[in-house]
Amino acid sequence: MNKQIGLYVHIPFCNGKCPYCDFYSECDLSLADAYTEALLAEMAAGEKENISADTLYLGGGTPPLLGARNLVRIIDAARRHYSFAGEATLEANPCSVTEKMLSELREAGYNRISFGMQSAAAGELAVLGRKHTSEQVHSAVESAKRVGFDNLSLDLMLGVPYQTSESIKYSLDTAIELDVQHISAYMLKIEENTDFYRKNRWEECPDEEQTCEIYLSTIEYLRQAGFMQYEISNFAKPGMECRHNLKYWRCEEYLGFGPAAHGYFGGARYGHSRDLKSYLFDASQTVSVTDDAPGSFAEYAMLRLRLTDGILLSEAENRYGEAARQMAEKAKRYESSGLLIISPDRIALTPQGFLVSNELIGQLVL
To answer: Domain map of the chain by residue range?
Structure first.
């Protein structure tokens, strides 16, 4: 039986750089066709025996800017070189797709779209530098449904400048009313090389107490609407979790293609440089970052504890031995604080624990 892996494909093209975004992107769309050729060459060169892919994820950037024809070629290459069959996700801005394009993508085999909604409040969209409106989100979702997509996700952002409990409730209500299957709600993190950082926009964000309130109320509000939290920032109706992203958090294997893409295969993590022109010159350019050795238990714990089902102790002990047992002992001192849930077979963070996850996980694994 073939080993099942995931495929991540980075599409770096964007019409512009959002002021909060730290992802690698380029604006020169004249390179789209050349990029597709380089990407297809890398996918062909990476073909391996006795593996097949059951998830495909095209992230960005803005993947639809590559054009329907090139996107179809990518999923065809995934089938040809990796016997792909399963969940095929495409990230999209609400204003970057037409119903005709969505129809072509659905016919080609894409079956999941993740729309970057971010907010339903016009003021927040303006602050975030988003080019779409709430009405365009509605139009894009309805178009996707009409052409046969029945697995749709919306991204929201929490803790953005001037956000209030009332405005996030408005965004949540809007997302829920669109009857999608999955919602991601990401806390804004202002990275150094962004416009938000250069302009000190964190001074306009909700304070720590307000941000905690927004996050915890979001979890409860979505739960009441039938969306179960399965990861720090991700919520799904039963059975509709993002299978590809679960591979990351479960430390399962996946291959990454394109500049800035990372992969994990055969015990090694690797990544492409954030340089489109270098990638076009040599698509095989990769660098090994780390390997899956006992020293990487911290990474394993960090990823698994992002999930609401946490760390399965038997798996952790089989894989990491003494490091896992030491963590289980350390966890006991935090159980009474309400940050952790400890059961005979697993350790998991509570919603309150998710709010301090970086610090808490650091205490557990150091």
So the answer is: 3-248, 293-366
Q: Who has greater pLDDT, 207 or 305? A: 305
Q: Which of 119-133, 222-236, 238-252 has the lowest mean pLDDT?
A: 119-133
How many Å separate Cα 22 from the centre of its chain? Answer: 14
Global model pTM greater than 0.85: yes
Architecture in CATH of 3-248: Alpha-Beta Barrel (3.20)
Number of Cβ within 10 Å of residue 218's Cβ equals 25
Reading the block at residue 34, the tokens are 């050349």
CB atoms within 10 A of CB 52: 16
CATH number listed for the domain at residues 293-366: 1.10.10.920
Copy the structure tokens of residue 107. 């016919």
17 and 264 Cβ atoms separated by less than 8 Å:
no
Question: How is residue 281 written in tokens?
Answer: 């010159």
Closest CA to 8 of 273, 248, 257: 257
Mean per-residue pLDDT of the chain:
91
> What average pLDDT does range 307-324 have in this prediction?
93
Number of Cβ within 10 Å of residue 314's Cβ equals 11
> How far apart (Å, rounded) are the C-alpha atoms in residues 229 and 184?
9
How far CA 95 is from CA of 106, 229, 349, in Å, comes to 18, 28, 37
